[in-house]
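Appendix C reproduces, verbatim, an entry submitted by the partner laboratory led by Prof. M.T., so that reviewers can inspect both the input and the predicted structure.
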Amino acid sequence: MKEKLKDLRERSGKLLSVAGKVIIIFASMVVGFYANELYVAKTSQTNKEPEIRRVPSVKSHHETSVAINERGEIIVINRKDGSYEIYSDSVGLMIFNHYASKMYLKAQQ
């Protein structure tokens, strides 16, 4: 009788040990799943899809006026609404150099 009781304790101990390990693994999986769901929910709120930037339309010379002020800055004026943008003199020189090289290459041909 003592041997049967001792054998029963050993079997139940092994069974409880295996069941405990399974429960710990299952609980870890459940906690990991919910932690992942919280992380995804939090990051999806802060990292929204960036808006697609549209290419601005090309302005013709009928819609635009260009001027140079006393400091050599280029002013591009929208004739429709009167808005304008000011560029430093180095931008003007860069544009000039591009057009000058284009004309030079055209003249070489």
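The two ends are 112 Å apart (CA to CA). Additional entries are available on request from the coordinating office.
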